[in-house]
Write a structure and sequence with these properties.
The chain is an alpha/beta fold. The protein is about 45% helix and about 15% strand. It is globular.
Length: about 140
């Protein structure tokens, strides 16, 4: 398992709390960094050395300023972030958001479950796959 952090881009404090609680209840030990909007996340990623990029980004779509779709578009046009695994983690039920996320290069699209236990299990499985099983470049 990688020791690189997970970047959570989420503006809703309640959803942030649920994600952090879900990771605490799972076996994922990676540090979780939180950015509240797309611009802060983009700035953060571009300031990091290439070898310290997060292992995974969990991205909400509905963000103030630069939304998640615009952030995803920009990530995929820059060499240093083009291969960063991005899981869209959203409460959006819009099919257009799902299609657009994949068109812009999302690696996965997960709708936030309403039930906390289901949410914990979804986060556990995300961590297991993206941090333990999935092989990433450099």
């Amino acid at each position: 398992m990688t020791d690189r952090p997970i970047l959570l881009v989420e503006d809703n404090p309640d959803d942030e709390f649920l994600v952090l609680m879900a990771f605490r209840k799972s076996t994922v030990q990676n540090e979780i960094l939180v950015k509240r909007n797309g611009l802060d996340a983009l700035d953060y990623l571009h300031e990091l050395p290439q070898d310290r990029q997060p292992a995974l980004m969990l991205l909400d779509l509905k963000l103030p300023g630069m939304d998640g779709l615009e952030l995803l578009r920009r990530l995929r046009t820059t060499a240093r972030t083009s291969t960063l695994p991005v899981v869209v983690l959203t409460s959006s039920k819009e099919d257009e958001d799902l299609v657009r996320s994949y068109e812009l290069g999302a690696n996965s699209f997960v709708r936030k479950p309403v039930d906390f236990n289901d949410f914990v299990e979804a986060v556990r499985q995300l961590g297991l796959y993206w941090l333990l099983l999935n092989e990433q470049p450099g």
